[in-house]
Amino acid sequence: MKVGFFDSGIGGLSTLHQSMKVLPEVDYYFYADTDHVPYGEKSIEEIRKLVDHAVGFLVDKGCEVIVLACNTATTAAITPLRNKYKIPVIGIEPAVKPAVAHCKDKRVMVMATPVTAKEPKLKNLILKYDLENKVDVVPMPGLVRLAQNDEFSGDRLLNYIHNALADYNLADYSQLVLGCTHFNYFKDTFAKVFPNDIEMLDGNLGVSNHLRETIINTGLVKEEELVGRGSVEYYYSDRKIEDGEELEHIKALHQRLERNLKL
After folding, report:
1. What angle is formed at CA 191 by the lines to CA 188 and CA 193, rounded to 5 degrees?
2. Which H or E run includes 115?
3. What CATH class is the domain 2-92+204-260?
4. Is 19 assigned to a binding site?
5. pLDDT tens digit string along 45-90?
6. N or C: which end of the chain has fewer CB within 10 A?
7. Over the stretch 146-174, which tens digit does the pLDDT of each residue have?
8. Where is the active site (predicted)?
């Protein structure tokens, strides 16, 4: 069967990477809207229009389940998408619940894009689980651009992170929630900036497990039919990636994500 993954850019590869581990048997179609990235500073209306186009593209490719591997897209567009398309649409949300459960006597920092940070979806999630007011939300829009430019280390990245976090005492935090799938590329840098005992959480494993459960529970595929290894195709804003150099670049991004899984 075919599963479509959408993100504004390369961040969603982190969700795809995890899903390919949990559910290697299906055929994946990954769509990154690189013509319009970043989404985190656009209007809700513009985001919805762009995401709807991409999801329509994936549905036309025969995808039977769609995963929004983008916190911003999930925040802005998942409800109208579920109303429009009669197939499962799975979203991702910041891992606030486990972070609050694990933080003990320290605080939780949620890094997100401006849209995710300001919209009611995240605020309601925090209100539901943060009963002791331990969560701080920090918009980090510059990280998306840095990720898209493959700037995963170096002075510009470190200066941006230090400036964005200048008003926070990082020793107060035991949990760092990566509320944008692009942020997974920077886990090794975050590990250098935050205290040694910082725990970094994202929603990728939860989404991947949910995807597997959805496929089985909706009867799209029986569990015993999940055999062998599927394939993956990559698209940048409607364009299939077939260039060998760009495919090698995507392979290198997967390798970086694999290394960061251990952090």
Report:
1. 115
2. helix 114-118
3. alpha beta
4. no
5. 999 999 999 999 999 999 999 999 999 999 999 999 999 999 999 9
6. C
7. 999 999 999 999 999 999 999 999 999 99
8. 70 (proton donor/acceptor), 180 (proton donor/acceptor)
Residue 182, marked binder? yes
- Per the annotation, the verdict on 70 as an active-site residue is yes
**Candidates 58, 70, 111, 200; catalytic one:** 70
Establish whether 39 is an annotated binding residue: yes
Q: Do domains 2-92+204-260 and 96-201 have the same CATH topology?
A: yes
- Catalytic residue flag (residue 180): yes
CA distance 196 to 93: 25
Look at residue 18 and tell me whether its pLDDT is greater than 90. Answer: yes
230 is in an annotated binding site: no
Name the catalytic one among 109, 157, 180, 200. 180
Ordered by start, the domain boundaries in the chain are: 2-92+204-260, 96-201
CATH topology of domain 96-201: Rossmann fold (3.40.50)
pTM check: above 0.70 = yes
